[in-house]
Design goal:
Helix 4 (51-59) crosses helix 8 (136-158) and helix 6 (91-108) runs parallel beside helix 7 (121-131). It is built from eight helices and no strands. The model has no long low-confidence stretch (mean pLDDT 89). By secondary structure, the chain is mainly α. It starts with 5 loop residues before the first helix and ends with a helix.
Length: 160
């Protein structure tokens, strides 16, 4: 991370988290002493952002259960790996996820964010439904924490 040109660092960081403000601040914070320092600063920077920056990061993700991902190829591959739990599910579960995703987005104004790694489609659907009862402020903080977890996993995958 410390040695990457700014444009390459920006692309690598945006593959980890879709917030441009987060990526910019992480680049400005270089150099990092080690991987742990990078992860700590990633967390600190994430929590210092405004809610609109969080929502920008959320918008970079495909909805849970979507068959295709947007974004650059690295981001797309990671999203597909993270959602591996929905690859071989029955169409009825995918239909339930799609409907729950629509309802969630209508209620909160952004897509449902969950650190999907290791979770089955059924588990993600249960989580989505259970979080529908949250008030908007509580849900935004929960979604932001899920994004933080995703970002950390991706930083480790990218070996930044």
């Amino acid at each position: 991370m410390n040695d990457l040109p700014a444009a390459e660092a920006d692309a690598a960081l945006l593959a980890c988290c879709g917030s441009r403000a987060w990526a910019r601040r992480m680049i400005e914070g270089r150099p990092y002493a080690d991987a742990e320092a990078l992860l700590e600063e990633a967390d600190r920077t994430w929590w210092s952002l405004a809610p609109e920056d969080w929502r920008e990061a959320f918008a970079a993700h495909p909805q849970i259960g979507e068959r295709k991902s947007a974004g650059d190829s690295q981001f797309r591959r990671w999203s597909e790996q993270e959602q591996a739990g929905v690859e071989s599910v029955e169409e009825v579960i995918l239909a339930d996820l799609a409907e729950a995703n629509r309802t969630y987005a209508e209620r909160f104004g952004y897509i449902f964010i969950v650190c999907a790694t290791g979770k089955s489609a059924e588990e993600m659907l249960r989580l989505l439904r259970s979080r529908m009862g949250n008030d908007p402020d509580t849900e935004l903080r929960i979604a932001a924490e899920e994004q933080r977890k995703i970002t950390r996993l991706r930083i480790l995958k990218a070996e930044l």
